[in-house]
Amino acid sequence: MTREPFSLEAEQGVIGAMLIDPSLIDSVSADLLSSDFYFADNADAFSAVLELRAESSPVDFLTVAEKMGGVGAIAITAELQRNTPSAANAMTYARIVKERSTDRCLIAAAQRIHEIAHNDMPTVDKVSAAQSEMLSIDGTAATPEISSAKDVMRQHLVELERRK
């Protein structure tokens, strides 16, 4: 079963939840960036919410629309708030947005690895470049454990020795 690397509903749910209950902003936005949003309007609204919060300004659909500016901003933010069934699921919506963002990063890395594989360079360099691509992906969704650089280098050297 496949899924799209974005979820309009989850993106709208995250922002709508923050509009309904601004006390959720800090916890919901802790692991999210505006770049995690696939849809530009949602990324803009998320950024506006965070900017208002940083300014200690009130956060509601009108203030967010004003911060966003542009034609249709009020309609966008009003719809975000109106279409969110409950603020209770905000953390679930945020997790989905982050997962789909990671999916898009994996797709982009896979495309770059495909290009690397077709490149005319030594195989060992291809493998190293492919590993770098995978390591460049934000690992927050991939693994909860933290490794020291020393441990990572030791494991890498062991693997290189094994291949040699």
Please tell me about this protein's structure:
Mean pLDDT is 88; it is low at 140-146. It contains 8 helices and no strands. Helix 6 packs antiparallel against helix 7. It is elongated. 65% of the residues lie in helices and 0% in strands. With 164 residues, the chain is mainly α.
Essential attributes:
164 residues; mainly alpha; 8 helices; 65% helix; 0% strand
Briefly say what this structure is.
The protein is mainly alpha-helical.
Secondary structure: helix percent: 55-70%
Return the string of H and E elements.
HHHHHHHH
**Average pLDDT taken over every residue:** 88
Number of strands: 0
Q: What's the shape?
A: elongated
Task: Give the number of helices.
Answer: 8
* Proportion of residues in extended strands: under 5%
Cα-to-Cα separation, first versus last residue: 39 Å
SS class: mainly alpha
Low-confidence stretches: 140-146
**How many strands, what sense, and barrel or not for the largest sheet?**
none
In oligomeric terms, what are we looking at?
A: single chain
* Gyration radius, in Å: 20 Å
